[in-house]
Every structure is written in structure tokens, then in C-alpha cells.
Amino acid sequence: VQDATTHEVLTLAYMDAAALKKTLDGPDVWFFSRSRRELWHKGQTSGNFLKVKSVTADCDSDTLLVKVDPTGPACHTGERSCFHDPRNVDAAAAERASGPGVLDELFSVIEDRRKNPIEGSYTAKLFAEGKERIAQKVIEEAGETAIAGLGSRPARLAEEMADLFYNVLVLTSAAGLDPNMVWKELARRRIGSTGSPPDRPDVP
Which among 13, 38, 100, 168 could bridge 31 via Cys, Cβ 3.0 to 4.6 Å? Predict the structure, then answer.
């Protein structure tokens, strides 16, 4: 969403067919809330409406540029734009986004598929099949990872480990476990191995 006068980028959000129709009918922008799974009339609660000036599709027709006249801040923080943070994305940030931090992002998507199933989603299908099936997938992927580890193709091992991590996170979600509990347990064991006497014989 872009300010029609200043051309400042204000926010990014999602629409379904109903939200798009209401937006095209005007005068305000409507979105679809993926967390609440419902239509969202932007500004209905805050009074900060986005008045539609134009709607343009990109070359693939999968992204819309909506130019608006905002009646107030577009960001839920009270800032005019959601892109108000002056920090730039550097190479280190890009590396973090593709590093271990991707597990947190992946888990948030998995949680969303559990709470808001989407037709055609493999993750939603796993949840529908139940915890036993998910646990079985973890066992299968662990075996395939072990076999790949005995081979000489690092790329293949990486693929199998990615499958294993994914299925472990699906099981984590299905079991209602907060992954932070796992990270804290790993940290506890690490502290035990570098200072305090270890509580477990398998502390690294």
C-alpha cells in the first residue's frame, strides 16, 4: 500500500477475493486477516482508514499496488508507515534470515497451518492425519537422515536433515510444545558442559 501523494510505502497486507471486491468497490481498503481468518476493514477500530485511489496488478497478477489517501497512521504502532525503522538490511541480517533463525519462521507457519488449515497444504494434511502419523514421519525421516549421513553426498544429507527438522517441528506443534523449551534445555546442557557440573551424562 502506497501513499498516492508522497509515494511512501505504508504497509503490506493480504487480501482474499472478498477483500479485493470490497476494496475495488471503495472507498476504503479491506484486507484479509490470516491470523483471525476474517475480513479486515482497515481503520474500523483505529479510525485510520486508507482511502482507495487506484489498484494496479503486477506482471504476474499475484501482487497488487494499492495507492491511497491515508486518514491517519497506517502502522499499528502508530507510525505513519510500517517501514519506519531506519535500520538497513545488511549481509549479516540476510545470513541470519537463512540461518538457524529460519526454524522460528518455519514453526510460525506450521502453527498457522495447524490453527488455520488451508486446502492443499501438506502440513495441514499431516495434522489432519493425527499425531501418530506425524510421529511416524519423524521416525522415517530420522532413518533416511542416518542413511544419508553414511553416504558421501553432503547435499543429500542436507536435504534429509531439512525434512527431519520440518517433521520434528510439526510434531512439536501437534504436541503443543513451545520450541523455546527445547532451546532452553539445550542452553541448560551447554552451561553444564562449560561450567556447572552436568545434570545428565549426555551433556556435550
Answer: 13
Q: Taking the C-alpha atoms of 16, 18, 24 and 30 in order, what is their torsion angle to the nearest 10 degrees?
A: -70
CA 122 to chain centre: 16
Say what the pLDDT of residue 187 is. 87
Query: Residue 35 in contact with residue 28, Cβ under 8 Å?
Result: no
Q: What angle do CA 45, 18, 70 make, to 5 degrees?
A: 40
User: To the nearest 10°, the Cα dihedral for 7, 73, 43, 37?
Assistant: 80
Q: How many CB atoms lie within 10 A of CB 45?
A: 9
Sheet holding 50-57, edge to edge: 2-3, 64-70, 50-57
The chain-wide mean pLDDT, for the chain, equals: 87
Buried b (16+ CB within 10 A) or exposed e, 63-84: eeebbbebeebbeeeeebbbee
Cis geometry, peptide bond prior to residue 27 (ω within 30 degrees of 0): yes
Each residue's pLDDT tens digit, 118-141: 888 899 999 999 999 999 999 999
Helix (H) or strand (E) holding 38: strand 38-41
